[in-house]
Amino acid sequence: MTEIPVEEYLCTRIRRAEQALMAHHEAVLRGHGLTMTQYTVLLTLSREGGLSGAQAARACGVTQQSMASVLTTMENKGLIRRDASPAHAKVQIATPTDDGRAVLDRAYEEVIVLERALTDAFTPAEHGALCDLLDRATAVLVDQTPPPRGR
After folding, report:
1. How would you write the pLDDT of the chain (151 residues) with one tens digit per residue?
2. Contact 10/137 with Cβ under 8 angstroms?
3. Is 49 left (phi over 0), alpha (psi -120 to 50) or beta?
4. Burial letters for 20-47: b for 16+ Cβ neighbours within 10 Å, e otherwise?
5. To 5 degrees, how large is the angle CA 85–CA 104–CA 32?
6. Whether the model pTM is above 0.90
């Protein structure tokens, strides 16, 4: 078996890129009083409209328990409001408040700067190829992830 230097592992490079991206976003969002999850929730709610906690959890890739805590914190901060669903009285639908939309807009203006810088770092062909390669890598990662074990 040929040994590959650890700095050349694809997983190491993907992890470094992800860590750099998260560090950037967390630093920007901290200035707006948001966590990455709260930003993602606001972004999702602004695009999807009102969502239940379970729907928001699925859309943001977190557990329902984690989302319940995030939504409570966001409601206490005045970023979202929750109203009873017209279809199911026990289900609450979260929507961004005017303050939540304003915070999201301000944060987005800073986050999008990095997206533009990354896009500008590549030719259009390179950008397309990189997106395709990352999508393929993500598919392999998902495919190789074992399912949760039963209890």
Report:
1. 567 676 678 888 999 999 999 999 999 999 999 999 999 999 999 998 889 999 999 999 899 999 999 999 999 999 999 999 888 878 999 999 999 999 999 999 999 999 999 999 999 999 999 999 999 999 999 999 898 887 5
2. yes
3. left
4. eeeeebeebbeebebeebbbbbbbbbee
5. 125
6. no
